[in-house]
Amino acid sequence: MTHSSTSATFAPPVMEARRWLEGVSFGAQRPLINVSQAAPVEPPHPDLRAAIAEAALHDDAAHLYGPVLGLPELRDEVAASVSRTYGGAVTADHVAITSGCNQAFAATIASLCGVGDEVILPTPWYFNHKMWLDMSSVRAVPLPTGQGMIPDAGEAEALITPRTRAIVLVTPNNPCGVEYAPDVIAQFADLARRRGVKLIIDETYRDFHSRSGAPHDLFADPDWADVVIQLYSFSKAYRLTGHRVGAMVAAPAQLAQVEKFLDTVTICANQLGQRAALWGMRHLGDWLAGEREEILARRGAIESGFAPLAARGWRLLGAGAYFAYVAHPFDIASNILAPRLVREAGLLMLPGTMFMPETDPSGAQQLRIAFANIDATGIGAMYRRLEALEL
After folding, report:
1. What is the DSSP secondary structure assignment for residue 36, as one 8-state letter?
2. In sequence order, which residues have a C-beta less than 8 Å from that of residue 1 and are 6 or more positions away?
3. Closest among 54, 48, 103, 57 to 268, alpha carbons compared
4. Distances (CA, A) of 388 to 26, 160, 298, 345
C-alpha cells in the first residue's frame, strides 16, 4: 500500500472497540454496560431542540455558508463567557468557532507546525490528538505523568528542542479524569512563555469541573494571547455531538492562520449547530448546572464504591468529569483483557494501550471507564461485575 498521511496512524479506537461487540449477545439479566465513549447518548434539552427546529424553518441564513471563523453573535457570547469565567479580557476577535473540538485541535496544529516539528503530549494522551499529529507528520513527544496522573513542567522542559512548537494540556483530563490545579497550569504557561512555545489547553470538559471558581487564571494575564490557545466543545455541555460545534480562543494573528485551514476543510461550522450553541449559552445555564451536579454525583459514586475492587488489587488512578482511569490486577495486557470483558462481564471499556506509546508498558495494566452515561446504579453494577472476575 502506498504510504499516505492516514496510514501513518492507528485505527480509531472507539470504532475498534465497537467491533468487539460483533457476535456477542447480552441477555436481560446482564445487559451490556458501555463505558467506552464519553459522548452524551441523550438528545438535547427539548427547548433547545425546538430552537433548532425554529431556526431550520425560519432562519434562511442557517442553511447558507457563514463566516469562516463563526457566527458573530456566538463569538461574542464565547468571548463574554470566557472573560466572565476566568476574569480576563477576551474579545470576539480572539474566538473561532470550529466543527467540534477535534477540528479546533487540528486547525491549531496546522497553524503552528510543519513537517518534523514536535508537540509535547502528557501520557496517557487523548488518542485523537496523537492521531492528528501522526497524520500531520508532527512528532508527538510523550510526557509521562507522575503521582495522581499530573504532568510536571520541569520534566516537560527537559523535552523541549528547537523543533518544539507546543505543549498540550487536557483538563479535566481525557482519559484520566483528573483536574490540573491552577498552579500546575501556571507553571506550564510560564514554561511556554520562557521557551517560546504555545500552551494548548483543551477544556472540553470544563463545564463539569469540580471547582466552583475559575479552574485557572491564564486569561487574567494581559499578555495571555502570546502563549495560550484554549480549546472547547459544546458537545458535552448541550448534547450537540451530532451538530459538531467547538471553539478556540487565541491571538487574532493565530486565528488568521486558522482561518486558512477551516476555509479549506468545512468553510464554516454547522450553521444550525452554531445557533443551537448560542441558544444554549443564553438560556440553559441553570439546566447545565444541574447536569454538572449529576456528573459530580457519578464521580462520587465512582470514588465511594471502589473499595471492594481495591481489596482485589485494582487501583483508581484518576476520576473526574466523564472519566475514571484504573489499573487492573491481572497478568493480562489490557488490550487482551478489554475484549474479554465484553464476553465475560458484559462490559465495554477501552484499554490503556490505546492512550499510551507502544514503548510504555504501563498502558497494559490500565483501563479507561467513561462513566458519564451510567448512573450510580449502573456504576454499582459495573463494579460488581469487575469484582466477580476470575481470570
Report:
1. S
2. 7
3. 103
4. 17, 46, 22, 9
Copy the grid coordinates of residue 199: 500552551
Written as tens digits, the pLDDT of the chain (391 aa) is: 458 999 999 899 889 999 999 988 998 889 999 999 888 889 999 999 999 999 999 999 999 999 999 999 999 999 999 999 999 999 999 999 999 999 999 999 999 999 999 999 999 999 999 999 999 999 999 999 988 999 999 999 999 999 999 999 999 999 999 999 999 999 999 999 999 999 999 999 999 999 888 999 999 999 999 999 999 999 999 999 999 999 999 999 999 999 999 999 999 999 999 999 999 999 999 999 999 999 999 999 999 999 999 999 999 999 999 999 999 999 999 999 999 999 999 999 999 999 999 999 999 999 999 999 899 999 999 999 999 998 8
Q: What is the rounded distance in angstroms from the CA atom of residue 149 to the CA atom of residue 171?
A: 11
Please tell me the CATH code under which domain 46-284 is placed: 3.40.640.10
- The distance from CA 265 to its chain's CA centroid, rounded to whole angstroms, is 21
5, 338 Cβ separation under 8 angstroms: no
- Give me the CATH code for the 6-43+287-387 domain, please: 3.90.1150.10
Is 72:275 a contact under the CB 8 Å cutoff?
A: no
Centroid of chain to Cα 385: 27
Helix (H) or strand (E) holding 209: none
Question: What pTM was estimated for this model as a whole?
Answer: 0.95
Domain residue spans of the chain: 6-43+287-387, 46-284
